[in-house]
């Protein structure tokens, strides 16, 4: 059958060349969208090595001096610090709270902000890394709340795993270690800021890489302990993890109603309770990723619908004008499934013929720099599939072929069935 199909394609090359040209253009369009979503999906599925489910951030407000309930005696730094610690203990004692975290500023909380600095190895000052710093307060278990891991997810990190008596001790992620200490272990090594004030830190441990945005890659990061005292407690941010017994949509109003009176200590009061996965979604929106994905998704749906109709119409007409051939084949004993198989195979061969010139055109897109790779600006020594153009190119073209093959089969199956589901005499008489 394959030999017969090839002879038919060659014999009717003038008609087939237009169909092949149409499939070539369609193939390039679909490949462009497939490549975008391939990189997007790849980045999305990279493990973040932390878990934000059941985690909340507490918003605390301070009464202004002109408020009728403002307490002058509680406004001193010593009293305010003690009240803040009492609030922390009260939240920790809540029956639904599993653990509490303290961070030295919003930029130390997951998904909320990006704050990077340039660090270098003291052993080789030519080795630099652009690192996001997470200053945390070691009075509570920051790592346990956000479920940070080490050894590629095999170990859950906890504050008690490290010695925080040394103020120079820090934790770094694997990507930071790879960039600053590519030839050996980072444990016990020193790093410093590449710019004044040249603060130095000693690596107490290496944990797994984390991601800031869902659709980007992991980045180099470090976790710096900071002591909370009367001079800096106002910037401290409180977060906690629940035991997961109550959905967040129910927990937030219930917790706020129950704890608002109890957390009113001194001039502090509860202002908000934010669910980190929801903040993660909001950050994607603020960064423009949500709108970008929606736009590409709408474009893909529009293209797919139009391409499917185009392919369906083309092969419907192609099958219709060959009704006499179908009648002869039916008269010679061919089954409907045999005729469907014949036309589908022919369509797939025409599609495969269009693939090579389509790939040559796609390569021009690549050489012209028109293909975007999300996250490629993040410097790392890690191996990411989208950075290897040859396997990425082959995989995306294979996916494109499968998608378009499905469209071709869908565009041929019913027309071939409809045209074959008539008596051979009727088909020949119509001709």
Written account of the structure:
The chain is α+β, with helices and mostly antiparallel strands and 431 residues long. Helices cover 47% and strands 18% of the residues. The chain contains 12 helices and 14 strands. The protein has a 6-stranded mixed β-barrel with strand order 3-4-12-7-9-8. The chain has a 4-stranded antiparallel β-sheet with strand order 2-13-1-14. It has a two-stranded antiparallel ribbon with strand order 5-6. Strand 8 and strand 9 form a beta hairpin. The radius of gyration is 31 Å and the shape is elongated. It starts with a helix and ends with a helix.
Helices and strands in order, then pairings?
Blueprint: H1 2-11, H2 13-44, E1 55-62, H3 77-92, E2 97-104, E3 116-121, E4 128-136, H4 142-145, E5 149-150, E6 155-156, E7 169-173, H5 174-180, E8 190-193, E9 200-207, E10 210-211, E11 218-219, E12 221-225, E13 236-242, H6 248-259, E14 268-275, H7 276-286, H8 289-320, H9 323-331, H10 336-367, H11 389-420, H12 424-430
Parallel strand pairs: 4-12, 7-9
Antiparallel strand pairs: 1-13, 1-14, 2-13, 3-4, 3-8, 5-6, 7-12, 8-9, 10-11
